[in-house]
C-alpha cells in the first residue's frame, strides 16, 4: 500500500503555503463549492526525479473519483497500470493485467490513507479535518489548502500536503518527512461516464 503512495511522490518545486488560518468566508465558499462533488474524472500528469537517473520519470493517465467505489488511478503512459482504492482494500493491476490485493484488515493504515486521498481529490474539508490540521489561503477563485497530519502514523508517510485550485483542483503537492516534494497536476475534469464507472469493476474483478 505504501509503495503505491510513494509512487505518487513526484519531485517538484514547493507550492506557497497559506500564511494564515482559514478565513470563515473562504472555508464556507469551499465547503459549498465541493459539497457532494465526488463523482468525476480528470487527466493527471506526474514527474519523479530519482538521484540515479539523469532525467525525470514522467507518466500520465486518468484519475477517477466515485462516492460509491472510491478512487481509481489509471496510468496510461509510459505503461498501463491501475490501482483501485476504497476503505476496505487496495487492488492493483500491472501492465500484464496481473492482480494483487491488500486488505485494510491486514494493513489498518490503508483505510486511513484511502479515505484521505479520496477526500483530498474531492476537496471534502469535513473528512480531511478528521485527519489533518487544515489551513487555507487565497480567494475562492484561487485558493490553497495546507494539510498537516494529526496522526503520528500518518505523519510517517506524509509531512504535509498543499492543494491548489479555483473552480476545481489544479495541483496537489506532497512533502514526505525527508523533505522530498511531489506534484500531481490535474486537468480536463469531467463527470464520470457509465464507461468510467465500469472501470472500477474491471480493475477489482478477480
Strand runs, count? 11
CATH first level: Mainly Beta
CATH topology descriptor: outer membrane lipoprotein receptor (LolB), chain A
Mean pLDDT: 79
Task: Please name the CATH architecture.
Answer: Clam
List the domain count as a whole number.
1
Task: Write down the oligomeric state.
Answer: single chain
The CATH homologous superfamily name equals: Lipoprotein localisation LolA/LolB/LppX
Terminus-to-terminus distance: 19 Å
Describe the structure.
The structure is a single chain. With 206 residues, the protein is α+β, with helices and mostly antiparallel strands. The chain has helices spanning 2-7, 24-34, 109-121, 125-131, 152-155, 194-204; strands at 40-48, 57-66, 70-77, 81-85, 89-93, 99-103, 132-139, 142-149, 160-165, 169-175, 181-191. An 11-stranded antiparallel beta sheet has the order 6-5-4-3-2-1-11-10-9-8-7, sandwiched between helices. Helix 3 (109-121) runs antiparallel to helix 4. It is globular. Residues 1-17 have low confidence and may be disordered.
